[in-house]
Amino acid sequence: MAFACTTKWPPPQPRTRRGSMSIQGTCDPQFSEVRSEFERNFAERGEVGASVHVTIDGAPVVDLWGGVADPATSRPWTEDTVVHVWSCTKGATSLCAHILASRGLLDLNAPVSYYWPEFAQNGKENVLVRHLLNHSVGLPALSEWLPAGAFYDWEAMTTALAAASPLWEPGTRHGYHGLTFGFLVGEVVRRVTGVSLGSFFEKEVSGPLGLDFWLGLPEDLEPLVSHTIPVDPTQPGILLPTLYITALTQPESTAGMMLLNNGGYMAPGESDSRAAHAAEMGAIGGISNARGLAALYRPLALGGSYNGVRLVSEEQIPQMSAVSSSGMDAVVSVPSRFALGFQKAADNTYLAPNDREGWLVPEEAFGHSGMGGSLGFADPRARLSFGYAMNRQGPGLAINERGQSLVDAVYRALGYRQTGGGAWFA
């Protein structure tokens, strides 16, 4: 059931304190459980700094932030704090491709080589644009060793990917293209538009919608960034996903090539360097917050437009949300489901705790999570958009109990019910 938003947005509510932690912002009374779960994240689940934002029918019903942006200096997480949202970036990049498809400028069923001629080599002659979007092209990693800083050189990366041989026959299976997705889809966007992915996103999406979301962060905004707090695998109770274990024990594997051969990008602290923030990396480089993530998906929850800004046609939404590839993921080694560029709900709760990489939302929803827990998605049936961003990562590639508890609270507030496995339905 959809929520009929109150006409009067409630005033800012008093801070909730737990030690040095404070929660600020606003929350409609119907969604008070979201606020309670957000508070619990800090009190019981190890949250350090975070924000959550929810819209229904285009209107904000939850806009909360709190905690610490920089533990070393105790700098608080404020309304304008942004953070690296990792693979939530893929949602922004995919949206750019669908904007072009909606305008008739990009055929998702056309060969990639129609737009990017150099791509048609070494077994990729018949690769379709949809294969790039649904992670079935077979280029989750490069076998040739990449030099330091390779991910900051767009031309070098796209040239290498164009020359590479796929690791499986394109279209026959799917495997998460965690780091290469942005160069593959982004280069098609660049070839069609004649401008870089980040420039197109700013002109057509973040600028018109007024988003705090950047693919290539301006240097003067660096003071707003809260740096990532990575998982400490030595801490008691931390279980690394099979992907990480495989990469560390079998560096020649696909998982190993993806996580170890990236020009040093995955080295501790490198992803929060100025060079990383400035680069346009459409798979993993986005800088945003919960408000930016929710606002990115708000038009997609409302038929493709919001406040006079139309991103895609209403007819494009079903193409964006329909499952395009599913089953055992050839890279992550757990089942996964993808639409054309977006993740779909995947109930992996039956797996061992270290491999529960899915997220539980109604089938109509589509979006993308980010490594360690961030999440943005749209649910057109509920006319809902959601964003959650944080600085302390969990051990997995997708959301964890912090983000899922917020999602669950939203759907409970809307009167949705859960199946035995935890999936939500109206």
Q: How would you characterize this protein structure?
A:
The model is unreliable at 1-20 (pLDDT under 50). With 426 residues, the protein is α+β, with helices and mostly antiparallel strands. The strands form 5 sheets. Strands 1, 2, 3, 4, 5, 14, 15 and 16 form an 8-stranded antiparallel sheet that branches. The chain is globular, with a radius of gyration of 20 Å. Strand 4 and strand 5 (75-76) form a beta hairpin. It has helices at 32-44, 89-102, 112-115, 129-133, 154-163, 181-193, 197-209, 242-249, 254-260, 274-278, 290-301, 316-321, 401-413, and strands at residues 16-18, 21-27, 49-56, 59-70, 75-76, 82-84, 213-214, 225-226, 287-288, 305-306, 309-310, 325-328, 335-338, 366-369, 375-379, 384-390, 417-418, 424-425. The chain is built from 13 helices and 18 strands. It has a single domain, classed as 3-Layer(aba) Sandwich (Beta-lactamase), CATH 3.40.710. The longest helix has 14 residues, at 89-102. Helix 2 packs parallel to helix 6.
* Structural class assignment: alpha+beta
The level of helicity is 25-40%
> The CATH topology, please?
Beta-lactamase
How many E-type strands? Answer: 18
For CATH, the homologous superfamily is named as DD-peptidase/beta-lactamase superfamily
Layout of helices and strands:
Blueprint: E1 16-18, E2 21-27, H1 32-44, E3 49-56, E4 59-70, E5 75-76, E6 82-84, H2 89-102, H3 112-115, H4 129-133, H5 154-163, H6 181-193, H7 197-209, E7 213-214, E8 225-226, H8 242-249, H9 254-260, H10 274-278, E9 287-288, H11 290-301, E10 305-306, E11 309-310, H12 316-321, E12 325-328, E13 335-338, E14 366-369, E15 375-379, E16 384-390, H13 401-413, E17 417-418, E18 424-425
Parallel strand pairs: 6-8
Antiparallel strand pairs: 1-2, 2-4, 3-4, 3-16, 4-5, 6-9, 7-9, 10-11, 12-13, 14-15, 15-16, 17-18
Helix pairs in contact: 1-13, 2-6, 8-9
